[in-house]
Specification:
The protein is mostly helical and about 325 residues long. The chain has 17 helices and no strands.
């Protein structure tokens, strides 16, 4: 088999993994337990990546790496089709301000705790901070090519947002029962603090359909801030790279710019191709993640993610109440 055939075979392999993940994710058990396609895709990839021989993976590595990088960017671009400015207008100034405060505070806390206290490596800190402060696995995947993160660090970061995002999905609606906030404010609270879009939907529906709609709208506003976050990270990372005598280029995440441009297009209806491409990227990422690297990472990423979870849940409630009082 020639080199081109192996390249195509690698891509088809990740496509198959993505389709399998989407099929499994659509079954009643996984739908009922709110286990998303992206989570299933990376788990499938990790299992196969640690079972299949290294030589077999290496033979199709180009297609796998292509899916992990280029298909990821396509998926992020298509993700922008789900966001519209007309929906964002519903949350108003208070919703925009709340999201900005939560993103800045959460990521700043991640950096301070991760680097200054836990002494964790910068890539892991940025990935966990991005996933916790913006939009879970999608933010981590979008950040990965900008900071050129290693596969096992991306997998660890995704694992933390899956675990603690799930905890938020159940904890925050319970907290709402004792907070005395309105259903409208509850929507802003859930959308500005829970990690994944799917988790926001579930948490919002446990209160009411109105709350769920507002929560998802608030969450998508956070998603819209992702391109700006990636550009800032690119500029900051450039300054941290030692000067070698050659001009260092700022890595402008073009896929994030296209993502933002697509939010200007008011498109409604089912958009599923982003899920497919992101699932293919997650499956490829899992194939590149080895258990030895995960064991080596230790407990620090979990500690960092747990601290951010507490801040998002408790601190996010305080921020939402204060912004609501000031603006309204």
């Amino acid at each position: 088999m020639n080199t081109t055939s192996f390249k195509v075979l690698g891509i088809l392999f990740t496509f198959t993994g993505a389709l399998l993940a989407m099929f499994i994710g659509a079954t009643p058990y996984f739908v009922h337990h709110h286990i998303t396609t992206l989570t299933i895709a990376i788990l499938l990839g990790m299992v196969l990546g640690n079972v299949i021989s290294a030589s077999s993976i290496h033979s199709v590595h180009w297609g796998i790496d292509f899916s992990k990088s280029q298909l990821l960017k396509i998926g992020i671009i298509l993700y922008g089709l789900k966001v519209t400015f007309s929906e964002i207008a519903e949350v108003g100034v208070s919703g925009i301000l709340t999201d900005m405060i939560m993103i800045i505070c959460t990521f700043s806390l991640a950096y301070w705790v991760g680097k200054k206290w836990l002494k964790e490596d910068l890539q892991t800190v940025i990935l966990i901070g991005a996933g916790s402060s913006i939009c879970g696995a999608a933010a981590i995947l979008a950040t990965e090519p900008v900071i050129k993160a290693q596969a096992h660090k991306v997998s660890i970061a995704i694992a933390t947002v899956v675990v603690f995002g799930t905890l938020s999905m159940f904890a925050e609606p319970l907290l709402f029962q004792f907070s005395g906030m309105s259903q409208h404010l509850a929507g802003t609270y859930l959308g500005s603090t829970i990690h994944e879009v799917a988790q926001v939907v579930v948490a919002g529906r446990s209160i009411s359909e109105h709350t769920s709609h507002l929560a998802v709208t608030e969450k998508m506003l956070r998603v819209m801030m992702l391109p700006f976050f990636l550009i800032i990270i690119s500029v900051v990372m450039r300054k941290k790279i030692p000067h070698t005598g050659h001009a260092t280029q700022i890595t402008i995440p073009w896929f994030a710019i296209l993502f933002l441009l697509l939010t200007l297009i008011l498109i409604h209806g089912g958009i599923y191709m982003d899920d497919f491409f992101l699932a293919a990227a997650m499956f490829a990422l899992g194939l590149r993640t080895h258990r030895s690297a995960i064991r080596q990472a230790g407990i620090k990423p979990v500690i960092l993610a747990s601290i951010l979870f507490v801040f998002l849940t408790a601190g996010g409630l305080v921020v939402n109440l204060l912004v609501d009082q000031v603006i309204n």
